[in-house]
Write a structure and sequence with these properties.
Blueprint lengths: L5 E7 L11 H4 L4 H14 L2 E7 L3 H9 L6 E5 L8 H8 L5 E5 L21 E4 L4 H12 L1
Parallel strand pairs: 1-2, 1-3, 3-4, 4-5
Helix pairs in contact: 2-5, 3-4
Bound molecules: 1,3,4-trihydroxy-5-OXO-cyclohexanecarboxylic acid.
The site of 1,3,4-trihydroxy-5-OXO-cyclohexanecarboxylic acid has 10 residues, from loops.
Amino acid sequence: MTNNAKNILVLHGPNLNKLGQREPDVYGTETLDSINSQIQDFGKSNNCKIDIFQSNHEGELVDKIQNANSHDAIIINPAAYTHTSVAIRDAISSISTPVIEVHLSNIHAREEFRHKSLSAPVCKGQISGFGGYGYILALNSVVHI
Ligand code: DQA
């Protein structure tokens, strides 16, 4: 890898391990494994080293955010914690690494409780509504912006 190689952390929040089986009318039929292999393919073609982690536990996601010093950027889908977690928001605020928030569904077009993201205001930006391709859009923003 050359000097300008990027080191990126992708975090998937709760229930995203169930993609493919979970509410396919909302989230589609693509599995998390399939999304992750597209993320890794992007990394190989774009000189990025990408670490991927999924957890159903808020504190584990907080630990990963706090310990991301060696990463150039974090891409996170906090899933349901988007709407509830002051802890994840505060962890994002506590680091200088840029964070991009991704949602598979368009959270603004769904139930009202999903319209509010506690984390988006402390992120560089939010991508919502493009399914698994949202992660590729976020990776492109890290590489090109
Ligand atoms: C989600 C949207 C959240 O509201 C929901 O709780 C999820 C997935 C998405 O990717 O569309 O679990 O983050």
